[in-house]
What we know:
This protein is an alpha+beta fold.
Amino acid sequence: xxxxxVPRWLWRSLGAVFLCVALVATAGCGAQKPGxxxxxxxxxxxxxxxxxxxxxxxxxxxxxxxxxxxxxxRQARDVLALIDKGGPYPYRQDxxxxxxxxKVLPRQKRGYYHEFTxxxxxxxxxxxxxxxxxxxxxFYYTDDHYETxxxxxx
Length: 154
């Protein structure tokens, strides 16, 4: 057998290392990334898009920070108006599929979310601000390039 001449202390050391790695790996599996403070709705399982929660917010916004559309920056309100009209959009990336790779928004099939650029004054490129829409009528706003989102109540 190939492992016959391996010293016992080495076996114990390797076992301890593997045990530590396994413990560290499983400890991080249940941890959740801290999200934005809840400003409306209630934390709990989400309901169908558009369904209202007991707090009056739509079910898709449950557990998220929320912002009323009229409280968004003017540039974001302009983008909402463009989305309602169907364009034309100033950036070629507007309307493209948002992958939700950060997994901050509820998980959905690829192609469910689309993103639109919100111009940031003083930025030379597209900047960090976006509106993301969902097929169920959801609207989300981020001003930190997808790190956090607020549900937009219209």
